[in-house]
Amino acid sequence: MFIGLLVGALTWLAAPALAAEPLRVQVTTEPARVETVLGGRFMITTEVTNTGTAPSGEILAHLNVASIEGSVYVDPEDWSADRSQELSLQPGESQKLSWDLQAVNAGHFAAYVVVAPFGSNVAGNEDLMISPLVNVTVASRSTLTAQGALPIIISIPLLLGLAAAGVFFGARRRVSNR
Question: Of 73, 50, 74, 72, which is closest to residue 61 (Cα–Cα)?
Fold first, then answer.
């Protein structure tokens, strides 16, 4: 019985040490909204601030992109090649992180950054911090189709011909008036 009480007391004393220290960071994002065209490049900036009283330890900021329409498949690796950044912050310290993206799908999307503990001490039960969503609207780039090209193909030579005829007849009229 004494051994059982001793093991219980040791377990009770060790429990707080085994529990993960909560991640105390604040994540802000700029801009709140992005409007671009398919293939357009843009940048998102996040600022991670340690709001706790202890150093953050190693943390990982990870960029993600999701469709908010639900009908568009999104592969975040196509949007940005560098989607993870490691950092460590002292109490009260902030760090700005920049994310370069390229719109590879047309539609409405949300870009956001998840901040999580990182390294060999991660127990797997830590809280995650998520930035506010950046609303990204991507317009499809209009291209000239065969139907749209036909009026241009016909009108440009016609206009050039009319201009040449105007110059020819104008010059002829001036010569005959002399």
Answer: 50
Task: Tell me which H or E stretch contains 15.
Answer: helix 2-18
**What DSSP letter does each residue of 108-148 carry, written as one string?**
EEEEEEEEEE-STT--S----EEPPPEEEEEEPPP---HHH
- 129 beta partners: 115
Give, as one character, the DSSP assignment of residue 66.
E
The per-residue pLDDT for range 52-104, each reduced to its tens digit, is 999 989 999 999 999 998 788 899 999 999 999 999 999 999 999 999 999 99
Q: Which residues contact 29 (CB under 8 A, 6 or more apart)?
A: 44, 45, 46, 112, 113, 131, 132, 133, 134
β-strand partners of 61: 85, 115
- pTM higher than the cut 0.85: no
Closest CA to 25 of 50, 2, 5: 50
pLDDT in tens, 37-66: 999 999 999 999 999 999 989 999 999 999
